[in-house]
Design a protein that fits this description.
By secondary structure, this protein is α/β, with parallel strands linked by helices. It has four helices and four strands.
């Protein structure tokens, strides 16, 4: 099983192309875990409208340990990815930004 972990935040301009480029490469047993950092645009609506059972959405509430010496933005991004990864069930975990478009056979190439 492959888990693709993606983080989102106000990505409505790019999210559909990216998700379609990933879903076309996943089997019915794989999953796309999305951790959303409180999007205020149509990101979540676009994702939900796909109505694909392989997509599992989690909310990232911005909770992170504050003792780190990173900038706020690095905290949010890093811990948003960690939130997605913590929910992944796959034997192999791949990471994706919301504004990429994966080339055909990317997952197959990585898995091999």
């Amino acid at each position: 099983m492959v888990s693709v972990c993606m983080t989102t935040h106000n990505g409505e301009k790019f999210i559909l192309k990216q998700i379609n480029s990933i879903l076309s490469q996943l089997s019915v047993d794989d999953e796309l875990i999305i951790s959303d950092d409180n999007s205020t645009d149509n990101t979540l609506k676009i994702i939900r409208d796909l109505n694909d059972k392989r997509i599992i959405i989690f909310n990232f509430n911005g909770q992170y340990p504050r003792e780190k010496k990173w900038t706020l933005i690095n905290h949010r991004i890093s811990f948003n990815f960690l939130n997605a990864m913590n929910h992944a069930k796959g034997d192999m975990i791949l990471f994706s930004d919301q504004d990429d478009v994966w080339l055909p056979n990317k997952i197959n190439s990585v898995v091999q």
